[in-house]
Amino acid sequence: MAIVRTYRLILSKLYLSAWARALALIVAAPLLWISAAGAAYVWNSREHDREAVRAFADDLNPPTPAQRYLIVAPHPDDEVLGCGGLMHYASRVGAGVRVLYMTNGDAFRFAAERETRRLRVDPMDYIRLGVMRRREAETALSTLGLPPKSFRMLGFPDGGLEALFHTNWSEARRYRSPTTALDAVPVAYEGATGAPYCGAALLRLLEDEIRSYAPTDILCPHPSDDHRDHSATGAFVEMALASLSIRGGLPPNGCRLRHYIVHRGSWPQPQGPHLADRMAPPSELIGLHTGWRGLSISKDATETKAAAIRAFRSQMAIMSRFLLSFARRNEVFGTPYPYPPASVSTGAVVQQPVRDNLVRRFRPQADIKSVRVEQLQGGTLVAVQTERPAGRFTELLLNIRWLDRSGGAAEGDSLAATITGDRVEADRALDVRQVGDQMHITIPSQSLRAAGFVVVEAETRMAGVMVDRTGPVAVWFGG
Ligand SMILES: [Zn+2]
Fold first, then answer.
1. What separation in Å is there between the alpha carbon of 248 and the centre of ligand 1?
2. Is the pLDDT of residue 1 over 60?
3. Pick the CATH number of 348-476 from 2.60.40.1190, 3.40.1190.20, 3.40.228.10, 3.60.70.12
4. CATH code 3.40.50.10320 for 68-336
C-alpha cells in the first residue's frame, strides 16, 4: 500500500482535477503492482540462483584416456558452450572426442543480415552463413586442441528439428527450410550430402554414428532446454539409443547419457564474461528428474574455452554477453534418472518445474507440474497435471512418437492432439477427461499397439500464447 500512498502524494503535487486523479490512479495502480511484483520476482530468483551456486558441488571426475565422447550439438557453438572445458581436458589426456552437429545454424536471420549488411537476405545468404559457421566450428575445435577430423556437421535444417521429429517424419513428407529453401542436405555443407530433410533419415544417421563411433559417453541437450532445436536433439538421441537397444545394436561399452543445457530463461546469471565465477544448473531444474554434477575447470582451461567461444565470430557479433557467460570455472552436466527411462507398466512420472517464470506464476492453470504415463486395461493413460485445474481456457497440445517393438519408426507411429476444455482435435480416437488438477488422456491400445518406446511432449497455451512445455519425456513401453 506504500506504493499507492506515494503515488497519491505525487498526484497531489500535480494540478489535476479530482476526476483526472481518480482515473490516473485506476489506470496506473495495477501497472505499478505488476512491475513491483515483477521486480520482486527477479530479485528473488537471482538470490535463489546465487544460493544454488554456493550449494552446487563440482564432483564429476575429469576425462580418462579410455573414454570416447560423442557430443551432439544442435548448432555450431552449443558444443563449446556446454562442454568446451570437458572437450579440452579430453583432448589433453588423449580421450576420444567426436562432435556431431545436427545443423549448420543456417536460420539465424540477424547473423545473415549482419554478414551481408543487407536487410533483405535470400536463401543463398543463409546457405553461405551455414558454410561460414562450419569454418568457425573448425577454428573453435582446434582452439580446444582437437584434430581437424573430429567433427561431422550433418547439415539438417536449423529451426526445423522439432518439426522433423513430430511432423515431417518420412521422405514423402520432407521439410523445406523457410530460410535456405532446401529440402535435402546441400553439397556445400560437406555433411550428409543429399540426405532428405525428414525425421527418419536423421534418426538413421544418428544410429549409424553411435554404432560406428561406439562412444562411452554421449552428451546432448537437456529436455528442458527452451530452444526447440535443442530439446528435439535430445529426443532424437534418446530415440536412437532406444532403437539400437531394442535391436541389440548398442556399443558394448555402455553409452552413458549426459545432458548439458544452453537456453533456459535468463540463465546463467550474471551474464557476460565472469571467468573467475562458477555456475549451477538452472535452480528450478535441481531436484527433479535429473541428477546434476559439476566438472571443475582450471583458470587456463576457462581461458581456452573463452577463446574457442570467440571463434564463433558471426555469433559473437550479436550475443557475446550471453555466449561468454558460459566461460566459467566449472561446467554442469545432468544424468537423467531413472535411466534407462522408466517403463509404463510401472507408471512413469516425470516432474516439471513450476512457477519458474512470471507468465507461469500468473497462469497456474497452464503451468505443467508433471506428466505420467501408465498402461491400463485397454489403453495407455497420459496424465498431465497442472498447478491449478486447467479449466476451459487452457489449450493442451500433446505430441507422441514411438518405436515399434522391433525398434522401427514408421510414418504412422505418432499422435498429435489439441485439447481445449472438452473440445478435442486429434488424429486418433482419444478419451479425454479432467480429473481435479489433471488432464487424463487415454489412448486406446489398438492405436499404440506395437509400441516399444515412446516420447511424449506436452505444451500449454492460453489465448494462443505458449505458457509451458515439457520437452521430450522418454518412456519404455510395456516392458
Ligand atoms: Zn543452439
1. 31
2. no
3. 2.60.40.1190
4. yes
